[in-house]
Fold this sequence. Notes:
The protein has 322 residues and is α/β, with parallel strands linked by helices. It has nine helices and 14 strands. It folds into two domains: 2-135, VC0802-like, CATH 3.30.2130.30; 139-315, Rossmann fold (3-Layer(aba) Sandwich). It has helices at residues 12-22, 64-68, 92-105, 139-143, 159-169, 184-191, 203-215, 256-270, 286-292, and strands spanning 2-7, 28-30, 33-37, 49-59, 78-84, 117-123, 127-135, 174-177, 195-200, 222-224, 237-243, 271-281, 294-304, 307-315. The longest helix has 15 residues, at 256-270. The radius of gyration is 22 Å and the shape is elongated. S-adenosylmethionine binds at residues 153, 156-157, 179-185, 199-202, 205, 226-228, 243, 245-246, 250-254, 259.
Amino acid sequence: MRYAFLLIGGLEVLALAEVKYLFSTPEIVDGRIAVVEVCEPLFYRLALTKEVIELLEVCDYSELEDAFAEIPIPSQPLCVRVKRFRRTKTSTQELERKLGEILWRRGAKISVSSPKSVVKVYIADKAYVGLLRHVTDTKQFEERHPNKRPFFKPGVMLPRISRALVNIAVKDGLFLDPMCGTGGLLIEAGLMGLDYVGVDAFSNVVEGCARNLRYYGLHPSVLRGDAKILPFKDSSVSGIATDFPYLQSSKSFGSLEELYCKAIPEFARVLRFGCRAVLVSNIDIEEIVAESFEVLEVFRYKVHGSLTRRIYVCSNSKGNSK
Ligand SMILES: C[S@@+](CC[C@H](N)C(=O)[O-])C[C@H]1O[C@@H](n2cnc3c(N)ncnc32)[C@H](O)[C@@H]1O
């Protein structure tokens, strides 16, 4: 089935990657709208998509009224909601009224105050018409802000970003964060129902992470260990996402240079063939990463003046396929 995803503004590139790796490569990308063929609607996992509609029609803006004369009409009371990403002659409200009237004349029950179905129209280069199927609960990310956890360290990634990175890394199977810190990525993986395990080099951090996991009702699946020599068998995990220490806010166990050189091949060793690792760093590490992985994409996202995170999406397609 085809769906149109409305990506959140400001992080469209990462939002698009989340959709692509969780579902499939978009057929159309039109500003903040991505049209994707979806087999398994795992919409509850999305972090960087605002809402999803089941697509009924894609047309030119000038053809909207003709499209409304043809689209299937839901039997329940409905309303029409329009979102414009470019100027149109007719106002949003006027357009909603006009399109709603077309459906009403065709026999639809209209309820603006308590609709059971919402017919959405996004107007960008093209017009996208569909039934609203999912709205992302954005409040949950605020409620899980890192400073609300029992164990807090400054500078950690926000839950919304952490969740997107887990989704880019893995659809199902065992998820690993080999430098898990306070557990931001593990919490998101656990709340999405994935199997997960975390490793950190410092025992106070491991204890704090376990406390955070329990706080969200999750199993404290976290071990003390070194990312350079992980306590896992070859090809035993299905996805990795992790962020390297930045030194201002988190210590490295051993030198940072050694950590980059030894941990990245170790990630490739424990990751199953064809699976993904999402590696986050505040410095350019593409050359080191490329020695162990195929680098699929690199995103840069500015956190503040002195911190730009680089996000490397890597595929473990260089190693042994057995
Ligand atoms: C940037 S922090 C991770 C933040 C984490 N994503 C969170 O949500 O809190 C990096 C972590 O790597 C850990 N670390 C440093 N060197 C390590 C090593 N050799 N093996 C495992 N963990 C290590 C640090 O203790 C720190 O918690």
